[in-house]
Automatic annotation (TrEMBL):
Pfam families: MazE_antitoxin, Sigma70_r4
Protein name: Transition state regulatory protein AbrB
Listed PROSITE patterns: SPOVT_ABRB
Record bears the keyword DNA-binding: yes
Transmembrane segments: none
Organism taxonomic ancestry: Bacteria, Bacillati, Bacillota, Bacilli, Bacillales
Chain segments carrying region Disordered: 89-112
Amino acid sequence: MKKTGMVRQLDSLGRIVIPKEIRDTMEIGVSDPMEFFITEKEIIFRKHKGIQCIFCGTFDNLIYYKDQFICGDCTEQMGDETQHIALEDMPSAPAPNRNLQSSLRKSRSKRGEMLTKVEDTMKANPEATQNELARILGISQSRICQIQKELRAK
């Protein structure tokens, strides 16, 4: 674990501000869900990783592999592609700015997909509670609450 040298105080409500430099480095945006872990003497938090494929964003047929979720289709494609691509044929890594822009676009498209899925599920189950919607979609109740706020703001 790295030390940053940055110190922040808790306010009277128990809140703390994550410094902008850290938010930028970790690609944490406004209203991004965070998850907390507790060890014996430390509190660790990180950006919440949703239960969706890290490549295509689907929620169906997921496999948990090395701390990531990957769908069956992407797993099959990886198996096919890795057998046919030689190391020297691999494209070079994109410039950092392009990579960041690409990840932001993917994040926005995933958010849009999630908004649509929650909206569709709410229409199909108008009497469902947030907990029931969360169970149907395989996400947390608090994430449902956040998405409903975003949908009301539209």
